[in-house]
């Protein structure tokens, strides 16, 4: 099969012919319909995670089941259209598997927190290929009418912001601000609006501001703020530092901030902002199967859309360079 391969850090991908993977009795083999490029893929390309190479990148694959392991639940069948979340293969024996369980599925480990899991496109081969191996514990059915190109960004970008909203634990009707309207931010705005929250979009790039204004009308933010514009910025708060620190200054007393990026240098927050407004900073990981299934339901019901640029597999060698274009809008798929 054809696959894009990361052979050396910070060098273009190479198109290789490699064997179609074989599956174990507990796995699914899927024919890839589409796969997205994410910021984490760029960090893998840079060598941030010391990923083993050569490897096939992308942890945002969707496709069609073509083979089912004989120990897999009968709910999974050849021909089903599915999305594959990043984490695979819980060991069922580490502390993460024992203690970090989904409250609604206490008899099953939450694969996200397994200490020995593998991660598609990060520690094992991912989705920039014709076929990939999937773990049914972290797969979701794709709703009818959601094209592969639209579904792919949901497997990480969507799954990340959906969990962030879930972790906010907001009461109905409260406002949600989204800083940075790219691939994740555009989905966060639509999800929040679809869940009934008032939304504010904040960015300093014309591409991000325009993307917010072009969202489906019923999911469009109530306010779009350019924080480089002095007059508009004063309606929120004066810019005062890096965006994660600045984000706390927008919040009122007892508010919650969920930073979803993963910068290698970590985050910086002002102690004064945290203490004097008694703020909460809450972590959020990519969605598990249950959360992703809820996300898919809202996507189908509300018509959530990503702005995507599609690239053929054979033309994807320069994906990391395309990703760093400052004028990029939405997602590369």
Task: Explain how this protein is built.
The protein has 333 residues and is α/β, with parallel strands linked by helices. The protein folds into 2 domains: 2-153 and 307-332, Medium-chain alcohol dehydrogenases, catalytic domain (Quinone Oxidoreductase, Chain A, domain 1), CATH 3.90.180.10; 159-281, 3-Layer(aba) Sandwich (Rossmann fold). Helices cover 26% and strands 19% of the residues. The strands form 6 sheets. Strands 8-3-4-5-9 form a 5-stranded antiparallel beta sheet. A 3-stranded parallel beta sheet has the order 10-11-12, with helices on both faces. Helix 4 packs across helix 5.
Mean pLDDT score: 89
CATH class of the largest domain: Alpha Beta
Q: How much helix, percentage-wise, in residues?
A: 25-40%
CATH H-level name of the largest domain... which superfamily?
A: Medium-chain alcohol dehydrogenases, catalytic domain
From the alpha-carbon coordinates, what is the Rg to the nearest angstrom? Answer: 20 Å
Look up the CATH topology of the largest domain: Quinone Oxidoreductase, Chain A, domain 1
Order of helices and strands: EEEHEEEHEEEHHEHEHEHHEHEHEHE
What percentage of the residues does DSSP assign to strands (E)?
A: 15-25%
Alpha-carbon distance between the termini?
19 Å
How many helical elements? 11
**Which structural category fits the helices and strands?**
alpha/beta
Pfam families: ADH_N, ADH_zinc_N
GO molecular function: alcohol dehydrogenase (NAD+) activity; metal ion binding
Organism: Aspergillus sclerotioniger CBS 115572
Cofactor: Zn(2+)
């Amino acid at each position: 099969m054809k696959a894009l391969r990361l052979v050396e850090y910070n060098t273009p991908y190479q198109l290789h012919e490699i064997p179609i993977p074989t599956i174990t009795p507990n796995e699914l083999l899927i024919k890839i319909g589409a796969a997205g490029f994410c910021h984490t893929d760029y960090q893998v390309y840079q060598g941030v995670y010391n990923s083993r190479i050569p490897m096939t990148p992308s942890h945002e694959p969707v496709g069609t089941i073509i083979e089912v392991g004989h120990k897999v639940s009968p709910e999974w069948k050849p021909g089903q259209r599915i999305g594959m979340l990043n984490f695979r293969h819980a060991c069922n024996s580490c502390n993460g598997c024992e203690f970090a369980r989904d409250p609604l599925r206490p008899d099953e480990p939450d694969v996200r927190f397994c200490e020995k899991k593998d991660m598609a496109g990060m520690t094992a081969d991912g989705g920039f290929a014709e076929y990939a191996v999937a773990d049914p514990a972290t797969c979701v059915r794709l709703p009818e009418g959601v094209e592969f190109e639209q579904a792919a960004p949901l497997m990480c970008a969507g799954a990340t912001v959906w969990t962030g909203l879930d972790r906010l634990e907001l009461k109905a009707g409260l406002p949600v601000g989204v800083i940075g309207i790219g691939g994740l931010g555009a989905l966060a705005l639509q999800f929040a609006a679809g869940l009934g929250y008032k939304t504010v979009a904040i960015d300093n790039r014309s591409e991000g501001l325009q993307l917010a204004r072009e969202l489906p009308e019923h999911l469009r933010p109530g306010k779009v703020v350019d924080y480089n514009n002095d007059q508009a910025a004063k309606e929120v708060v004066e810019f005062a530092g890096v965006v994660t620190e600045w984000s706390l200054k927008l919040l009122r007393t007892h508010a919650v901030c969920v930073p979803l990026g993963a910068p290698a240098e970590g985050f910086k927050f002002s102690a004064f902002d945290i203490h004097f407004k008694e703020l909460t900073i809450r972590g959020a990981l990519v969605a598990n199967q249950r959360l992703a299934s809820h996300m898919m339901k809202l996507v189908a019901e509300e018509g959530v859309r990503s702005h995507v640029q599609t690239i053929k597999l054979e033309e994807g060698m320069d994906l990391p360079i395309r990703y760093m274009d400052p004028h990029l809008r939405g997602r590369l798929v």
